[in-house]
Structure formats: C-alpha cells, structure tokens
Design brief:
The chain is an alpha+beta fold. It contains six helices and ten strands; from the N terminus they run βααβββαβαββββααβ. The longest helix is centred in the middle third of the chain and has 15 residues, at 88-102.
C-alpha cells in the first residue's frame, strides 16, 4: 500500500532517499542547490512529500506556498527511475490536488514547453500527466525558467489546478505571480533582465486551455 508522508526536517530518516530521487530526476539547470533545499525545508518554506511503500521511498513532491497569496507552486515532482509508469506519480499528484483544494489554494505548475526542448515527446507526456489530473495551461503566457546551474534558461508552460476560476485570470495577477516566483524561489530582482524580457507579453486576460 502506498503511503504519502510529509517530511518536516532534513533529519527525517527518509530525507536522503528523497534527495537522491531529486538528484536523479532533474537536470542541474533545473535543480536548486542542496543548501537552499535544506534551508527551505528547515525553515518550512518548502513542503516535502514522499510516496513510499514497504519503507522504500518511490516518489517526491516539493511545494512552495507563495507568500501572502492563495497560490502554491509545485516546484518538483519526481519518481524513482525503477518505479516509473506504475501509477505512483498519479497517486502522489492526486494527493497534492486534494490537499490544495482542502486548503482552498491553487496549484501553480511549471512544466517544460514541448515546443522548445530536445525530447518533445517526453515533455508532451508530462503536460498530459498534469492535464489528466485537472490542470490547464495558461494560454499565451510565455515563461522562462532562469538557469539554476549554467547559463541556459528553459522555456516553460505554466499550468494551474483547479482551473475553474471562471476560466480565466487577470493578466495583472499572472504577472504578479511570475514576479513573486522569480523573487521568492529564484532570488532574482524585480528588474531582472530575463524576467523583463517576457513579463510584459502577458495578455490582459489569461485563459485556461488544454495544450
């Protein structure tokens, strides 16, 4: 039976196993440094969830609640490479969706844009995975993930769940959320050149659509 457990500090006996899945699942350009991961968990900025069976950690999810908003960023979701395609990711995602609904929050998801990556089929499967769990794409919103290692940024789609907020959001709110993500999660200033290169392209009204 799969268990979903929240980690509250780096001394938890499952932390190192969870960390290894994180390191195996994401490229360096998309990974936060280890000291930031540990600091955010210790200070309760990150909410770490693990999926485990028979005392083995099979999957992880990291949530980051944006300060003074109703939005929670799904920063990472990864499954042990030996246990993928077994429904574990779906069960973990379902738990997260129910969690934010109970909290009356909205989950904001960053997922690589299939139109701008080397493995477009894998990226499409990721987008479809989130769509299968109720997420929608923010239409016509260009978003670039700043490089966390190296100097190559990543073109990203923004998705949300639940996406039933009258089918749309004010563009001003989307801009605010993007700026907060840049500042809080990536420690980039409001006048960051990369942020400035796309933030004004956000339309006045942003609709939710399928990819």
């Amino acid at each position: 039976m799969l268990q979903i457990v929240q980690l509250t500090d780096i001394n938890h006996p499952d932390f190192q196993s969870a960390l290894q899945i994180y390191l195996d699942s994401f490229p360096p350009s998309e990974r936060q440094p280890l000291d930031i991961l540990e600091s955010r968990l210790s200070n309760q900025f990150y909410q770490w969830f693990i999926a485990k069976r028979e005392n083995k950690v099979l999957g992880i999810a990291l949530l980051y609640p944006l300060n003074a908003t109703d939005f929670v960023v799904l920063d990472y979701l990864g499954i042990d490479k030996d246990y993928r395609s077994q429904g574990i990711g779906g069960m973990l995602m379902s738990h997260l969706v129910q969690l934010v609904k109970i909290q009356q929050k909205i989950l904001l998801i960053e997922v690589e844009n299939p139109q701008f990556c080397e493995d477009s089929e894998q990226a499409k499967r990721r987008v479809q995975f989130y769509q299968n769990n109720g997420a929608k794409v923010l239409r016509s919103v260009r978003y670039i993930l700043p490089p966390l290692s190296g100097d190559v940024p990543t073109e990203i789609l923004l998705m949300m769940v639940p996406a039933d907020l009258e089918g749309q959001l004010p563009g001003s709110l989307v801009k605010q959320l993007i700026q907060q993500v840049y500042q809080e999660m990536y420690d980039r200033p409001s006048n960051d050149a990369l942020l400035r290169s796309f933030i004004e392209e956000v339309p006045d009204v942003v609709e939710f659509v399928d990819f």
